[in-house]
User: Fold this.
Amino acid sequence: YEDARRALGVLERELHSIPSDAIHLMLGSQDAIEFVTLAQPMDVETAPSDALIQVTYSIKGDELIREEAPVEGALPEPPIPPSRDLPAALKLGRKSDFVVARGVRDLQFDYSWAGDNPPGPPGAPPIPARIATDFNAIYVLPEVIGVTLQLDDPGNVNAGGVSAFRS
Assistant:
């Protein structure tokens, strides 16, 4: 439980610290996420305090890995029109990998965006937001990123030895 809470807490803080001029540098899939954030590197030799770093979360074997690399130089401008490819001009320093949790069975990311609401007639109830979950259709930072992390839990026999955490 402690590994899961720590991992989800760090990920949540880092997602909240994505600078507005770096939102075009986020790339997500169902089982991994990569973004640029202003955060404390785990490799304290790289930077002793908050720094602009590129972070990737993914599973390797049964471990949740957090890969980080300091961003060196200026951030590239957002592509116009928007593109699904990360700009090649992002210069990174030495990469470091850290195990954030062990005994991981599954890691899943879900992304959601609220679409534009057309104005309704005066006095009419508001029109519900259109929620999009197709990552290929929208080219802006998701408004909601759901994370499900399943870890081995030998003490939880009734659930087959798995505990799931959602953030």
About this structure: The first strand starts at residue 27 and ends at 28. The chain has a mean pLDDT of 78.
